[in-house]
Amino acid sequence: MAHDTQRFTRRTLMVTAGALGTAAAPSLAQGTDRIVWRLATVTPLGFPLVGDAVQDFARTVGAMSNGRLGFEIDDPSKNGGPAGLMKLVREGRYDAAHATAHYYAGDIPAIDYFTAVPFGLTAVENHGWMNEGGGAALFEAILEPLGVVPMICGNTNVQMGGWYAHEIKSVNDFRNLRIRMAGLPARVLGRFGAKSLEVGFGQITAAFQNGTINAADIIGPWVDQPLGVGKYAPFYYGPWHEPDVSMHLFVNKQRFEALPPDLQQIVRQASAAVSMRSIAKAQYRNAMALAELERAGTVVRTFPPAVTKALQRVTAELLEEDARRDEMSARVIASFKAYLAAVKRYARVTDAVAVLQR
Fold first, then answer.
1. Residue span of the structural domain in which 204 resides
2. In the list 115, 143, 180, 201, which could disulfide-bond 148, CB 3.0-4.6 Å?
3. Which of 285, 315, 343 is the endpoint of a domain?
4. Alpha-carbon Rg of the chain, whole angstroms?
């Protein structure tokens, strides 16, 4: 999941200044006990679903705290984009950042699996792993030495498997595929000869037009529909690589612990509430958008069983390789696998059956 800021920058700056207020630095507002945090986001506030989550979080904290904790939000045009935000939070130049962990997996490999894993956990299961399966404790243990407190602050729910110019009949059709995709899923397709490319959100349609790409992982129907890529890639494949993508709030530990206990709890509870609302929003709006896409001629498919099995096999191989790379990755992967093994049977005899019987 990658984002481009060009289409939304002006709206972002207006919302930041007009609705959320400004502050030169983290400080107590003059004459009051109001605290203002500087918050960086990897997406503009006008970006569907992901940007919405940031606004929801700011509003929720403001309401729950009766205005005692507010935010100055800087969009990517001001904060420089996702790559350096973790460092800026660690240094205290921002009090918090709204991003996803996979952006920082190059420096901290073990946190990659808290974003999304192919054939992994759904949004509800992700929260189950974090809250009941020990995931949150591991996440916090990894970032504690860096002075950062992480928490889930939004979910995309199930993401589609991407837009393809040609039908995928076997894994041989991945050979020489030029696809907009990143992270572990891109590594999986790379094993079959696909080439992953970085293409900004605003450049996806042009990249199809000029032949730079012939496939693209975007997000889901609600976000994808306005781009009109179905004209160039009529096959829209169902999920495999991102059963959910968790968005995260990364908070400077020193600043977080300086908050009164009630404000600390408000930040945590607001993050959780935002996650539940983003799941609900994605579920409904994706359903409406998918119906419209199909009426317009988009061909919705799932990969053939043999292709799915091959993708599962390579995903498992890569996770095994990653687990041998470093001790903390091994711990996270083991925890993730144990939770998935514990809940997947229940999901098959409840969630899956309930859906199919409707």
1. 162-238+298-356
2. 143
3. 285
4. 20
Is residue 321 domain-shared with residue 198, that is, in the same domain? yes
Q: How many domains does the chain have?
A: 2
- Give the pairing type, strands 215-216 and 178-180: parallel
CATH number, domain with residue 168: 3.40.190.10
Go through 299-334 and write b for each residue having 16 or more CB atoms within 10 A of its CB, e for each that does not.
eeeebeeebeebbeebbeebbeebbeeeeebbbbbe
List, edge to edge, every strand of the sheet that includes 195-197: 195-197, 178-180, 215-216, 162-164, 235-237, 299-301
Q: Which amino acid is at 172?
A: N
* CA-to-CA dists, residue 271 to 42, 241, 247, 266, angstroms: 16, 25, 10, 8
Assign residue 164 a region (left: φ > 0; alpha: ψ between -120 and 50; beta: otherwise).
beta
- At residue 237, the 3 state secondary structure works out as strand
**What digits encode the pLDDT tens for the residues 98-122?**
999 999 999 999 999 999 999 999 9
For residue 2, tell me if it sits in a domain: no
**Dist CA 245 CA 118 (whole Å):** 10
